[in-house]
Amino acid sequence: SDTHQFLQDLPKCEHHLHIEGSLSPALLFRLAKANNVPLPDPAFDPSFASLEALEARYEHFTSLNDFLHYYFIGMSVLITESDFESLAYEYFTRAHQDGVHHAEIFFDPQAHTHRKIPYSTVVNGLVAAQKRAEKDFGLTSKLILCFLRHLSETDADVTYQEAVSLGHFSNGIVAGIGLDSSEVGFPPEIFREVYASAAEAGIRRTAHAGEEGDTTYISKALDICKTQRIDHGIRLVEDEKLLQRVAREKILVTMCPLSNVRLRCVTKVAELPVRRFLDEGVRFSINSDDPAYFGGYILDNYCAVQEAFGLSLKDWRFIAEAAIEGSWCDEVRKHVLL
Ligand code: HPA
Ligand code: ZN
């Protein structure tokens, strides 16, 4: 349709995409076999009996933690540099088809180093894919290093120091830090010290907050971790003052509509605070989060928003411009994107 074509053609930036969340069940089974990685015994979890069974299971997540259980099993099949390269190149190919011009992708180094896959194997694979995507599609991208919040601050710091010692923040390979995994019970202030080190070093900062957690997770991310973005942030509407502050300070909220439905943060896309954010001038981008798990890539998310809210050209222009202005690329690239 016309709207679909319009949304496809709209120059998009993706800011909330976990590269490990773009691992499809098909690639999961293929790599498990190729790398000899054992998957759970179907006698204990029938979801692993077949490709179809796993795909069906992904349609019935009950919460963030229910999803994360499968997310961490899934990524255990990623072993070699070339596995990470293929994974990321497949994502970039799809993103390009969806009209993405610039992507900032999260990766979870601790989920790999904890199973003896070196940090450099992960990053080298991802960087190889980034270079190919820029050459083949003109798609620019950045990496955002996420800490797993269910692990300790000490563990986050070890990961941070490894990236620092390799010069990955100063040479631009890693554009910033983020915080993901189980939210409730793991508030952002646990990670205050590593965020303070990053702030001092001029490293950009974001954190998942207000997905399942209440508004204190958002305010603590901003006040204590000094984040410049909020990932998800849909519960922001529960605190009017905080909402106005986010608008005033031009904090980018990275929304993930289909993810929020799949993880039962809302029952349908129409419940998301899209209209409220637009009316209050809260800058947000629309993203896919973990597209292989949540049944849609970025364009599907854009279309779901349009279907639910019937936005105007002016609204879409605001969203597209906020996404570009909130990107962590240099001013020259931003100018080209605008
Ligand atoms: N929330 C928290 N952690 C995650 C997510 C998410 O949506 N996706 C992958 N890790
Ligand atoms: Zn996420």
Automatic annotation (TrEMBL):
Zn(2+) binds at H16, H18, H208, D289. Binds 1 zinc ion per subunit. The active site is at E211 (proton donor). The record marks H232 as: Important for catalytic activity. CDD domains: ADA. InterPro entries: A/AMP_deam_AS, A_deaminase_dom, ADE, Ado/ade_deaminase, Metal_Hydrolase. Substrate binds at D290. Its EC number is 3.5.4.2. One of its GO terms (cellular component) is cytosol. It catalyses: adenine + H2O + H(+) = hypoxanthine + NH4(+). One of its GO terms (molecular function) is zinc ion binding. It is found in: Cytoplasm; Nucleus. SUPFAM superfamilies: Metallo-dependent hydrolases. Gene3D superfamilies: Metal-dependent hydrolases. Keywords: Cytoplasm, Hydrolase, Metal-binding, Nucleotide metabolism, Nucleus, Zinc. One of its GO terms (biological process) is purine ribonucleoside monophosphate biosynthetic process. Its main location: cytoplasm. Residues 11-338 form the Adenosine deaminase domain. Its cofactor is Zn(2+). HAMAP family: Adenine_deaminase. NCBIfam families: aden_deam. Catalyzes the hydrolytic deamination of adenine to hypoxanthine. Plays an important role in the purine salvage pathway and in nitrogen catabolism. Belongs to the metallo-dependent hydrolases superfamily. Adenosine and AMP deaminases family. Adenine deaminase type 2 subfamily. This is Adenine deaminase. It comes from Cudoniella acicularis. The lineage of its organism: Eukaryota, Fungi, Dikarya, Ascomycota, Pezizomycotina. The gene is AAH1.
